Amino acid sequence: MSSPSQPANAPAPAANFIRNLVEADLAAGKHARRHWAGQPGTAADHAAGPLDPARIRTRFPPEPNGYLHFGHAKSILLNFGLAQQYGGRCHLRFDDTNPEKEEQEYVDSIIDAVHWLGCSWESDGETNLYYASNYFDWMAGFAEYLISAGHAYVDSQSADEMRANRGTLTQPGKDSPFRNRSVEENMDLFKRMQAGEFADGAHILRAKIDMAAPNINLRDPAIYRIRHATHHNTGDKWCVYPMYTFAHPIEDALECITHSICTLEFEDQRPFYDWLLERLAEGGLLQRPLPQQIEFSRLNLTYVVLSKRKLIQLVEEKHVAGWDDPRMPTLVGARRRGYSPEGFRLFAERIGVSKNDSLIDYALFEDAMREVMNESDLRRIAVLDPLKLIIDNYPDGQVEECFAPNHPLHPELGQRSVPFSRELWIEGEDFQEVPEKGFRRLFPGNKARLRYGYVVECTGCDKDADGKVVAVHCNYLPETKSGTPGADSVKVKGNLHWVSAAHACQAEIRLFDRLFRVPAPGARREGDAPELERNFLDDLNPDSRQTITAQLEPGLRDARPEERFQFERHGYFTVDRVDSRDGAPVFNRTVTLKDSWGKAG
Ligand code: ATP
Ligand code: MG
Description:
CATH architecture of the largest domain: Beta Barrel
CATH class of the largest domain: Mainly Beta
Structural class: alpha/beta
Radius of gyration: 31 Å
Bound molecules: adenosine-5'-triphosphate, magnesium ion
Oligomer: single chain
Largest sheet: 7 strands, mixed
């Protein structure tokens, strides 16, 4: 039987394996003697600076080629969270070494999204916001060092030849005929590559490791390529650009990163990460101890896609209204939809961090959101499918105040006054002319409570020529007003919400459903023919967005963009930050309430 405490040799709880590792490093003082130049730099730069005041350094390194999605949020919260927890710093680094794809629009949106999640790269007097393209001089210099030390060579094989000679998982590769060029020749060629003497693809710089290495990533990986392209930051200064697998470890080391956390698909790259940094540290170019790469499993969520490529496709082919479409699993979409940063935190903490690939149920994400919002959001009243209720024995023109609590869990948040009058809007589903079994709200002869108001007795309804109910009639019981001594004199089982028709704020509300109809969009399903290839776009839910006109309690007229409320019985709604106007809010449904209202509601 298990004892209350974990046996000493038990594996660390999966959710904490990174924290455990950081704690072990801290306990061992692994990083305590690092220096920090106050900015990124080489071993010499850092040696001239003081001891690093940060106990650890982590980073979030997006490539600015798209908007951030929910998966990135997991990585952001993990990296910034660790830094905060352990007295460290987390850098925001734009990994903009690829000249073709980056755009300022993406840089701006990434900065906004990280801030929105409540994370900051500014702490303790440091501003750790970096652009990898500012390191190109160092990177080219390091490449030249590798050439001079015999660790890199210029290969002039064609791309096809290189591919053919790389070998396979079961067969070793073949050495390039250019592999044994002299240091002088390699250096001369690399300089001329930089000077622009050659066309794209004519030569490539490769690390010289082992063409027979079982790990294909160690078979002389390419480290610098010729690319005649204008870079958004460095313009036309360079016509050679580093490969990602060369650039990334160097960026980490220059920035004194202690724990370089990435997703599992980079696991096979780790040997090269370590090989490269070792060679450069041997050469005295990088400070020790070197950063350690740690992999965790990426976030996969049901009913959405979390890949920039697919998200770009949704936007470009106009399957959604844009990156910030509230149905998009992007952080701009989440913000517009009304999801809360605190909800993301709770969700991230709950799913934890592990090395096991898993598909997380979207319901778990929604539950975390509901939990946070239930606590934080003020309650308001909205009628989404308005049906007129006429109280025939209530004086025409009379208006009185009813009081509704702002938050049932927080009486200190007070209450507000909502006007009550002869004609109200109620939910269409709260009246049934012929009640089904168990129905307890309004039907002829039945009594029900208008929440925060009176008990009414239904007397009948009006119908149009097609037999559709257009108004419900009732009489109220004056002695039953909520909050007065006689309120409970009449017991009823049904309870409904309402707004005064003369005072209501009419508003557009957007209701969202899942963007995809199936849990794993585009994935093969049981029974699929072997040759069938599915396209995630075929799994789009055609009814994922619906617009309705609702009647809201009058105070909501003044709701500000991004304010969020719980509309009683319906769920959580936020004021759309794009389409709302002063006095005319448009609402997005963030998430429904748990299906807990029950028939008695
Ligand atoms: P995508 O695969 O969606 O195109 P990416 O990994 O190419 O994303 P980057 O800009 O390179 O996007 O990612 C920045 C950081 O976010 C990386 O450290 C990456 O590991 C992390 N990240 C990306 N997607 C996920 C995910 N689904 N779960 C957790 N972390 C992620
Ligand atoms: Mg990437």
